[in-house]
Structure formats: C-alpha cells, structure tokens
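User: My advisor asked me to double-check a structure prediction for asparagine synthase (glutamine-hydrolyzing) before group meeting. I don't want to rely on an old file, so could you generate it fresh from this sequence?
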Amino acid sequence: MCGLLTYISTTGIGRTMTDAISEALASIHHRGPDGTGIISDDDVVMGFKRLSIIDVSHSDQPLNYANGRYSITFNGEIYNYVELRAELVALGAEFATRGDTEVIVAGYHHWGEAVVRRLRGMFAFVIWDRRERVAFGARDPFGIKPLFHHVAEHGVYFASEKKALLPFARWGEGALDLASLSHYLTLQYVPEPGTLHRDIGRIGSGECFSYRPGDAGLAIRRYWRAEFRPTPQDHPAELYRRIREALRESVRIHMRSDVPVGAFLSSGIDSTAVVALAREVNPRILTFTAALEVDGYSELPVAQESARQLGVTMHPVSVTARMMMDALPRIVWHLDEPVADPALVPLFYVARKASQHVTVALSGEGSDEFFAGYRVYREPLSLRSVSGLPTSMRRGLRAVSKAIPQGVKGKSFLERGTTPIEERYYGNARMYTEQEKSVLMRQYDGTVRYTDVTSPLYAEAVGLDDVEKMQYIDVYTWLRGDILVKADRMSMANSLEVRVPFLDYAVFDVASRIPTDLKLPPRSADTKYALRRALEGVVPPDIVNRVKLGFPTPIRVWLRGEMHDWAAHILGTSKTGHLIDLGYVRKLLHEHRLGQADHSRKIWTVLVFCLWYAIFVEGSLDPRPEPATSALLTKPVVGSMVT
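Assistant: Sure, here is a fresh prediction for asparagine synthase (glutamine-hydrolyzing) from the sequence you gave:
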C-alpha cells in the first residue's frame, strides 16, 4: 500500500514543478514510510511513497518500463500478478522485478486499456506513455483504493489523498461545494465523484481515464459495473459450495505477501470467516479487535471466544471516550473529506495495534452489500402486503397515512409501503432530512436532494427487485463513500495495508447470482442466509447466525457524559456559523443530554464538519502527526499553480 502524486504538464513546465510536488508528497508520508521516489521531465513529475509489501528489495516506484517509454505510479495490490506475469512472459514480455507494479505496465504495453479488466485486486494507478504522450490510469472496480484529481490550466494532478492536491488548487469560501455539503449532512459522507472542494474530484470506482497534454479535461469512462444477476437454484447446496470455494480462493490469494499478514476479528460471521480461511494458509495468523467498555457495545468477549475456537492469537485494544476525543482531529485530517461514522475511531486504534505486529491485515468489508447482510434489506419483504397492491389502492392508503397523527401505530408502515423504493431508500446512513436541513443550513438550496445521487443509480438498476436495488445503491454509495474510506484512511494513517477478500471479482460473481429468497428467506429472520449456510463447518457454530456489532461506538452515552463539554466547546468556538446554524445544533446537544431524544449521530455529523473546516479551511487546527511536514495543507496557495 502506498501513496502517489503525479503531475502532467500541458506547457512543458514539469521539471520546474519537481520541488513543489516533492513538498506536497510529504503530506502523505504515512501511506508509504519505507521509501520515496520522484522522477521528472518536461511533461511529467511522478512522486511516490512506498509501503513495501511485495518484492520488498525491488519494485521501487515510480517504475520505468520498456526502456523508459512508460513510467507508472501505483497504489494497491494485484493478487493475480503471478498468473498475469506468466501470460505476459509467453507473449515475450521481460521483467526486471518480481512485483505486481511491473505486471500492470507490461500488461498495458501488450493489452492496452483492456489490462484493467484482467487485474484482480485493489488499485489506483497512473501510467505515462512518453512515445504517445498520453496518460492512462484506473481505479479498482469497487473503489477500495482512492484516486483524486485536479485539472488546472497548465496540467492535471492525481493523488492518493486530497490533501496532496490542496497546494495546487484554488481555495477559500468560493471553492466550497455547498451541494456536496448538503449531501454530507444527509448521508454522513460526501458522495463520489465530488468533494467539498469544487476544483478537486475523484475517479470513480470501476473507471479508467486517459489524458493528453492540451486536452480540455480528463476522458473518464467506466470499464466495469456491478451487475446483480439472480439465478434460480434447483440445488442450493451446490450454490453454497461455490460461495465457500470462491471465498476460500480469494482469501488464499489475498495472503500473498512478503511481509507478515494478520486480520481484524469482530463478533460477526464476516471477519470470523476470513480468519478461519486465512488460518488454513497460516495457522499462526494474529488477530486484532477493539473493546469499548460500555455495556452493550463491546465485541471483545465474543471475538475472544471466536479466537479461542479458531486457535488464533488475539490482540485487543480498549477505546475510551478520552481516546475518541483525542484522536478525532487527527482522524479528520487523514480523511480529507468529512465522514461522520464514529466507528472510524476504534478502527483507527485497531489499525494502530495491528501495525505494531504486522504490515498487512485482512478485513471483512463488502460482505453485507454482496450477500444482503443489512437488516434494512428485509424491509421490502415486510412491506409486500401494501407495496404489492394495485396503484389506485396504494394511492388511497397513502392518503390515509397522511391523515393518521404522528406516533400512531401503523402510520409509518403505510407511508413506507406506499412510497416507491426509489424515493424511500438512499443508503444506510440517513442523518438530516430536507426539512431539518432547511433549518440547519444557512444557505439551504431545496433543489439539491439525495435523489441527485441515487436517481442515476436506480436508472441502472431497472429490472432488479427492491432488495437487489438496495444492494446496488449501497455498492455505489455507502460501501465506497463510508466503509472503504474508513478502511483505507485508518489503515494508511498507521502505515498498515488492509485487504478485503470479499471485494473480489470471483466472490461478487457468485454472490450476484443468489436469488433474494436465498439471501433473505421470507420465513427466517436471517440476513445473508446463503453465506451463512455456505460457512457452516468453516466458522464456529455459534457465530454462524450471530448479528455482528461492527466496532460500534457509544457516542449516544458519551455525549451525555464525558464528551458533552468537549462537543459544546467545538460548537461554541467553530467558525462555521455562516454555513451551519450552530445554535440549532447546541439545542440538539442540550436535548440529548437531558435524554429527551437521541440526537447523537446528528450532533456527531456537525462536530466532524466543524473539525474539518478548522483544519482545511481556517487553518486554525493542525493535528498532523509529528514530525509535521512542510507541505501547504491548511493554507494552500491561491491560484491555479504554485509559483
């Protein structure tokens, strides 16, 4: 796992930008503390920070290929690089290293842009072809690895983290994207491809791009899209076998490494399955988990019992309210964009603990989206008695629901049952409603709605049933906007590589074919039923049907106690009052403390934004890890280029 920063010039000033690129590259040193590389010529400057995983003594980047025709910067891992290398050797390719980076660029030389469809792994890369004077790059199908871009008058920049681009982009109030802020307040993350910075965007998951100096912009296109293709199963046992073997093979190739590999272990079936299958490759694998000493929030006892039954060593880390408060500013700095998921904090500390023992950790992200693991996915099944009625009857019941007073039993059921899925569901995190935002936001624009994000996705999901539509929405919103951002930033903050075996082509291929009645049987309360059946005999029996907690954080409790004054101080001193009605949020905090309502997630969402604003806009808070870099992070140069 590494960090890249690449600049391609349209005016031949590449060499003059070397020092500026080097300075900005220092801001992502945490992504690759094992080595730094920079190459430059008139057209391009490529900077790289390396965390050595494969071919540790070689494969330094930027890497040149074909007598210097190509240069590449690459963040990620290609798990089938051994097989691809053998194919390329048969085509006459020559290799100077044993790593996966050279396989990508050799594949591009022999297969062209089609190489991205053959890469099995997590990746974000940029290749510069000096002969054709064209850049080509891509991001992995599920968005595991990030890739930000900034198009300026004199060229284009690419980086693994947004902070590395800030010195080169226009900044200030006019550059703050209010539409993205509105989406954040609803979703708790900023949806792709936008950011809170108007001049900085993201290459989307499953997208590739090309750029020629002088082009008006990036030519971005989609090379892969998740397609759910449910297939009736006459023999479910055979399906369960295919699920089990696809996951077993994925874990096996995710264990390829020249450095120690461990795993995160919580109380649920996903991480337990990954550990159980990884143990088949390495019986001595180390595991790591978080403990929050508040009743109902700690996964430690169950995780310890799972570790005992699997025969693996566990290293737990306890997380307190004080640790949450201390770490949050630094976490927000690492995030680049605000993400209001409190689970970031225990994940940060688990990654820190793991990095003391291993360089790579396996994790269970992606299982819930692929195999229907969220309980909300059962909602369409519970609403069938209403949603399946003729349109005229649904209209009548909708009118009835509006006449029922708030709080009366049955009102919510009728409202949900008579509302189409396209209007009802927009992902797992739902913070402020449009009505609440009209009060909360000083510059509320009612034309900006969550449907701006979800409508194009629902258009692509035509023909799927409601459960599959919900899965599709989550793959392109919640998974890549929250789950994978957490995994990447919190692991990289600690110079740890996290690998996610569920997010694999072959695993998705078999998961995408599971019919809804085998994911969520109507007569069962189980979620991801097919996966649970597939893992019987692999994970301990008492884990097969357990609902995981997923590193939950007791902010509901702590914001009424230990964290209250800390939160009040942030809200009382924040300079975001022209954007957010902080008095309204302080009222929510007061009501929450009195126990009148649970506003914890709404309060947390604003707290994270206030910290983000203080770090990246005001420059009044600098939580960077020591030693602080000299890169211009909080006060970027105004204008389109560094002089």
